[in-house]
C-alpha cells in the first residue's frame, strides 16, 4: 500500500489557502451592497407598504452608499411580487416588502406559487402602525358609534373599501364586524390608494388602513379617523380615540412593514441588512417620520419578526374561519 506523505510546510500552505478562501468569502459578504438593491413592493404606489418602504430605501441608500430601488409589482394580494422575489437570485440584491397581509396568504389561497414559510426569509420588521377607520371629512358618521349604529339598522348597507379580498384592511374590517355584531358591505379595489380615493369621492363610506398610508389626507383635513387600534392615542392625533375608548375593547389589529429575502441569501448579508435597518430606525429622521405617520419607530430582528408572523397568522386564521372566507 502506497503511503502519502505530507510535509509540515505543505500542510501549512493548505491551511493558509483555506483561511484565505474563507476570508475572501467573508469579505465579499461584508462588502454588500456593491451595486443597486431592488426592493419589490407587491402593491400599487401610495399605500402604507409603499410609503414606509420608500422611506426605508432612501435611508438605506444614504447609509450604504448604494441605491435601493423600489419596484411596484401589484396583483393577486401581493403574491405576484412576492413570487418574483422568491424566484430571484439569493444574493441580497432582491428583497420584497410586505405587511401583515403576508401572514394572511395561507388562508386566502389554496395553492400558492411559492411557500411563504420556506421560500422567503424574514429579515426585519419596522414602522409598526395602528390600523385606523377613516371616513371623509364631511361624512355623516362623526363617531364610531354613529357608523356602527347605522350598520346595525341596515345590515350590509354601510360600505368599506380595501385593496382586495384577503388584504389586511379587508380582514381588519371583518374583524371589527365580528367584534361588534354588524355586517358591512365590502367593495374591493386594486390597491389601498384607490380605496382612499373612493372614500374621498363618496363612492364608499369608510376605509380601514394603516395610519402610515393615510396620514397625509388625515392631516390635510380630507379624511377623518373615527378610531385607531393600539393601547393609546396617537401623539400626532390626540383627539382620535382608540377602539377601546370608542367601545370596542381588545381590537388589537396592528400593521407593520417588513423585508424578506430569498431563501439561501448568505447569512452575513442578512445580518448586515438587519443591522442597517435597526440603525436607520434609531435615527432622528426615521423616528420623526414614523411618529409623524402615527407609527411606532422601532425595528424587530429576524427572530422577533418570525414570532410576529406566527401570531399574526393565528389571528387572521381565526377571522378567516369565522367569516367563512373561501380560499381561491
The radius of gyration is 23 Å
Distance between the termini: 67 Å
Unreliable sequence segments: 1-6, 18-29
| Overall average residue pLDDT | 90
SSE topology string: HEHEHEHEHEHEHEHEEHHEH
- Helical residue percent band: 40-55%
Class from helix and strand fractions: alpha/beta
- How many strands? 10
The rough form would be described as globular
Number of helices: 11
For the largest beta-sheet, the strand count, sense and barrel status come to: 10 strands, mixed
> Beta-strand percentage?
15-25%
Structural features, described:
It is a single chain. The protein is α/β, with parallel strands linked by helices. The chain is built from 11 helices and 10 strands. Strands 1, 2, 3, 4, 5, 6, 7, 8, 9 and 10 form a 10-stranded mixed beta sheet that branches. The longest helix is centred in the N-terminal third of the chain and has 23 residues, at 8-30. The protein is globular, with a radius of gyration of 23 Å. It starts with 7 loop residues before the first helix and ends in a 5-residue tail after the last helix. Mean pLDDT is 90; it is low at 1-6 and 18-29.
Amino acid at each position: 500500500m502506497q503511503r502519502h506523505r505530507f510535509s509540515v510546510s505543505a500542510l501549512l500552505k493548505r491551511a493558509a489557502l483555506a483561511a484565505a478562501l474563507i476570508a475572501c468569502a467573508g469579505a465579499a459578504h461584508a462588502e454588500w451592497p456593491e451595486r443597486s438593491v431592488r426592493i419589490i413592493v407587491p402593491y400599487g404606489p401610495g399605500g402604507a407598504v409603499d410609503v414606509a418602504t420608500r422611506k426605508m430605501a432612501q435611508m438605506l441608500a444614504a447609509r450604504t452608499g448604494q441605491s435601493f430601488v423600489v419596484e411596484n409589482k401589484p396583483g393577486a394580494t401581493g403574491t405576484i411580487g412576492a413570487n418574483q422575489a422568491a424566484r430571484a437570485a439569493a444574493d441580497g440584491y432582491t428583497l420584497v416588502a410586505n405587511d401583515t397581509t403576508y401572514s394572511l396568504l395561507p388562508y386566502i389561497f389554496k395553492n400558492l406559487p411559492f411557500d411563504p414559510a420556506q421560500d422567503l426569509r424574514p429579515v426585519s420588521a419596522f414602522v409598526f402602525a395602528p390600523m385606523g377607520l377613516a371616513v371623509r371629512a364631511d361624512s355623516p358618521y362623526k363617531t364610531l358609534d354613529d357608523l356602527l349604529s347605522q350598520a346595525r339598522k341596515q345590515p350590509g348597507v354601510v360600505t368599506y373599501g380595501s385593496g382586495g379580498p384577503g388584504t389586511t384592511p379587508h380582514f381588519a374590517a371583518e374583524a371589527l364586524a365580528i367584534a361588534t355584531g354588524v355586517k358591512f358591505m365590502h367593495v374591493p379595489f386594486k390597491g389601498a390608494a384607490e380605496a382612499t380615493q373612493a372614500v374621498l369621492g363618496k363612492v364608499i363610506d369608510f376605509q380601514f388602513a394603516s395610519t402610515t398610508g393615510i396620514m397625509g389626507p388625515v392631516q390635510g383635513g380630507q379624511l377623518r379617523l373615527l378610531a385607531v387600534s393600539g393601547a393609546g392615542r396617537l401623539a400626532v392625533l390626540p383627539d382620535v380615540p382608540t377602539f377601546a375608548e370608542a367601545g370596542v375593547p381588545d381590537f388589537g389589529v396592528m400593521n407593520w412593514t417588513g423585508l424578506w429575502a430569498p431563501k439561501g441569501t448568505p447569512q452575513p448579508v442578512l445580518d448586515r441588512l438587519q443591522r442597517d435597518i435597526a440603525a436607520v430606525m434609531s435615527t432622528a429622521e426615521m423616528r420623526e417620520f414614523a411618529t409623524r405617520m402615527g407609527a411606532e419607530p422601532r425595528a424587530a430582528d429576524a427572530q422577533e419578526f418570525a414570532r410576529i408572523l406566527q401570531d399574526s397568522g393565528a389571528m387572521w386564521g381565526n377571522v378567516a374561519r369565522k367569516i367563512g372566507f373561501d380560499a381561491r
